[in-house]
Amino acid sequence: xxxxxxxxxxxxxxxxxxxxxxxxxxxxxxxxxxxxxxxxxxxxxxxxxxxxxxxxxxxxxxxxxxxxxxxxxxxxxxxxxxxxxxxxxxxxxxxxxxxxxxxxxxxxxxxxxxxxxxxxxxxxxxxxxxxxxxxxxxxxxxxxxxxxxxxxxxxxxxxxxxxxxxxxxxxxxxxxxxxxxxxxxxxxxxxxxxxxxxxxxxxxxxxxxxxxxxxxxxxxxxxxxxxxxxxxxxxxxxxxxxxxxxxxxxxxxxxxxxxxxxxxxxxxxxxxxxxxxxxxxxxxxxxxxxxxxxxxxxxxxxxxxxxxxxxxxxxxxxxxxxxxxxxxxxxxxxxxxxxxxxxxx
Length: 345
Description:
By secondary structure, the chain is of the alpha+beta class. It is 39% helix and 20% strand. Among the domains are: 1-57, no CATH class; 82-249, no CATH class.
């Protein structure tokens, strides 16, 4: 279904009627029309009245709505399955560039500490930056999935950077700041990064040095002046691999790729995927202070974080149709929901 510019001005009822004419059931059409209203009308908050003049839908917003419709209509197949470690669903990597070689994020009973490492380029150790943004998240999802699918901590990543990028659904653009150069940089930063997880249970405080990548087996270029440092294989540490087997959260790859231009949207999606299906009984209220601890470290002002969070929540909700989450006074209300990947019978 193509999303045209006129759809942005339609009410929930009018949009639902349009979907029904395209062959969708009334219940499904109303559900989708309500869920995508924020994206279609570009409203920063669910409680804010629609503006008389609305901005046209961006290409990304149209794509997210389309993918959300596909996810609603078509259950995930085996190739749509990907995984994230449960700890990284609670406390994620930096979302923006960090002007330091160390980063720490703490939320409730979980924490993550990252230290930028070095890679050997064939002649010397080269200091890397900390990984950040959506690219390392996509890389980790791919590596996790391959390790679990082939039951091995050693993962083959393709003969070239371009081949691996295509596997992740990324387009190639050249230049130092193009997608190609940024992808290689983030791959190297992730491979060199040292990671420590912290977790508090009812009786224990657990520190886990869980750096995922143990070995970065990289090819060198034929020229001594420009080492390639592209991995033939990547090997997870045995400790990370074993915990991944027991703590992998299944995700829909279609949703991850649709959200890949926003690390915040990706983090909201994986948090909901990890948490909603574990709720039993009464709904859970997440207050803005707690949400900012988990997601808002990169924002100076609470109001800036809240605005950005609500905007990206609409995107995450659009590609997780069964998520029962809504804004309430003081924060968000989460209700028990089916996971994005259905349970096996």
